[in-house]
Amino acid sequence: MSKTRIAFIGAGNMAASLIGGLRAQGLDAAQIRASDPGADSRARIQAEHGIETFDDNAQAIDGMDVIVLAVKPQVMKAVCESLKPSLKAGQLVVSIAAGITCQSLQQWLGQVPVVRCMPNTPSLLRQGASGLYATAQVSAEQREQAEQLLRAVGSALWLEHEQQLDAVTAVSGSGPAYFFLLIEAMTAAGEKLGLPREVASQLTLQTALGAAHMAVSSEVDAAELRRRVTSPAGTTEAAITSFQANGFEAVVEQALKAAARRSAELAEQLGK
Fold this sequence. Notes:
Elements: E1 6-9, H1 13-24, E2 32-35, H2 39-49, E3 52-54, H3 57-61, E4 66-69, H4 76-83, E5 92-95, H5 102-109, E6 114-118, E7 128-134, H6 140-151, E8 154-158, H7 164-173, H8 175-192, H9 197-217, H10 222-228, H11 235-245, H12 248-270
Parallel strand pairs: 1-2, 1-4, 2-3, 4-5, 5-6, 7-8
Antiparallel strand pairs: 6-7
Helix pairs in contact: 4-5, 7-12, 8-9
C-alpha cells in the first residue's frame, strides 16, 4: 500500500475511520483524497488527517488507484452513474455500502474491477470485522490493496461467493447490536437482583470485554471455554441450563436468518 493512491467518495464516519487506519499504518496524507458535498464534512476530515478534499467526485478520483465508495446505499446509483465517465482503466472500486451488489455496481459503473465489503461499526475503533468479495476483473494486486485497506481497521476475510455477504451482514455487520442487547439485558437483570445500575453496568461491560479477549486469545473454541467455566451443579450451569431450556441457540439462529434474509431483500430493492 505504500505507493497506492486512494480516493474516498463520501467523508462520513466509516471513511474517516479507514483514513485514520491507513494514516496510522504510515500511508502518506498526499496519497489520500476525499470528496463530499458537505463543507463541514470536508473541513473536518481535512483537519483531522491532513488530506486533500474536493466537492467534485471526478476531481477526487483523477489519477487515483483505488476508489472507495463510502456513501449511503440510497444515493449509490446516482453517485456511480456520475462517476462512470471519469473512471480510467485499471482503477479499483471498493464499495463499503450495505446491500448494493457487484452486479448493480457494474451496471452503473461499467465492467470495472469491484470489491464489495461488509465492515461493521467497531471499525470506527479499528476493531472491525469485514467480509470481502471480488469480481473476476480484480487482479491479485488489487485484492491485496483491498484487503490491506480493510485490515487498517480490523480483520478482513475473503468470501468465495457474493451471496455469503448476506451471512456476513447477519453475523458481524449487525452483530454488535446483538451484544449490545445482551449487555442491556444483563445490566437490567443485575439491577433487578439488587445491584446499583452503575455497578451492574460496569460489571457487565468489563465481563463482556474480558470474555471477548479470552475468546480471541485462546487456542480453544468458545464451546470449550464455556465448559471450563461451567462447574457441575454450579451457578453458571444453572444459568446455562435456563438459557438452553428457553431455546437460546434456536433464537440466535432465527435472528441471524432474519437478518440475512433482510440483507438479500435490501440488495434486490436497492439494486434497481
